[in-house]
Write a structure and sequence with these properties.
Two copies of one chain form a homodimer.
Chain A: H1 18-22, H2 37-48, E1 59-65, H3 69-76, H4 82-86, E2 91-98, H5 110-127, E3 131-135, H6 140-146, E4 153-162, H7 172-179, H8 187-190, E5 191-194
Helix pairs in contact in A: 2-5
Domain Nitroreductase (chains A, B): 21-66
Protein name (chains A, B): Nitroreductase
Keywords (chains A, B): Oxidoreductase
């Protein structure tokens, strides 16, 4: 039996781009489908060309395909139920902020800029027929140790990327989340001042 | 005399979406053209539907049209040469992170998530024919004081948004930057591990 999935499309007061309206973060990925190398490269190139403060580009990535030891290492360093579903993603990417320059100067906008780069990556991947789910629930210290990251490199999140799977493949609790309506605060609540 | 502007298009090893390839951050905005209300709304809606950690949506905005006292207040709180060019932007937006919940719990990914929301906003605006330039060089305390922001609200950056102007309208130093080739680190440098 197929579960009817309600529309995942964003409800907006005025139209926004298709890729943004249709992007959402699933937990069910098809565990058998590979992602083509050119699709992974396009996603990384999109991240590469994101804007950043003084063009410092304070982002680095660990990219691991399913079936590699590195993929398994990333899964081991996810928290709680993220481990349950993320291991099926074709690609896991550790999103790393460069928090200071070589001479020790803090890069104030490192995390903000990293967020922009991962946003570019996600939208490019979605445009190319994939789905993306970012996780904040990671063991940053464990990832740093496992991959021997130097002090200025800070794992901030992990991106799961792959082909959308069926909600039925998830345990019940996650299945219900997968098909629940998408929600956001009303726009008015986000605008402190409009002038 | 018109200065020939070299292509601002991103050079990538594999094609990426048009809007990302063509997006760049100018400093010359047309000081006479208004931005339609629907275009501003679309950009804000795009931000609204960005992903965030546990869907906390830790972003708020102060939106000010050119000619309002609020626009002037934002310009006053820009650093250095940002004041020279940003006052011509049709809209200035203060991008604010919500750094903790009402009960004081820190929102670890507030700045990262804000970066994603502003990325969505920028790409939507660019798709709608505008250009966007984000500034980290702001007086955050000055903005907080001027707009009476509570403690958990942190101004992180300001977005200038409007219709692209001619490079000739800028002072020489900025004009040279405006037409310089766009650059990024090679992709290899960004990938700590590929597996």
């Amino acid at each position: 039996m197929t579960i009817a999935t309600p529309s995942r499309r964003a409800e907006t007061s005025t139209p926004i781009s298709e890729v943004m309206a249709n992007r959402w973060s699933p937990r069910s990925f098809d565990p058998t489908v590979e992602v083509s190398e050119s699709t992974i490269t396009a996603a990384l190139e999109a991240a590469r060309w994101a804007p950043s403060a003084s063009n410092t580009q304070p982002w680095r990535f660990i990219v691991a395909r399913r079936g590699t030891p590195e993929h398994a290492t990333i899964v081991e360093n996810l928290m709680g139920f993220n481990q349950v579903w993320a291991e099926t993603a074709a690609v896991l990417i550790v999103n790393i902020a460069v928090t200071k320059t070589e001479d020790g100067t803090p890069l104030r906008w490192a995390e903000y800029d990293l967020g922009q780069a991962v946003s570019h990556l996600s939208l490019q991947a979605h445009r190319d027929g994939l789905h993306v789910h970012q996780m904040g629930g990671i063991l940053a210290d464990g990832l740093s140790a496992a991959f021997g990251l130097s002090d200025e490199l800070e794992p901030v999140s992990v991106t799961a990327l792959g082909v959308l799977g069926a909600p039925e493949n998830l345990p019940e609790k996650l299945r219900l989340r997968e098909i629940a309506p998408r929600e956001r605060k009303p726009l008015d609540e986000l605008l402190i001042v409009t002038a």
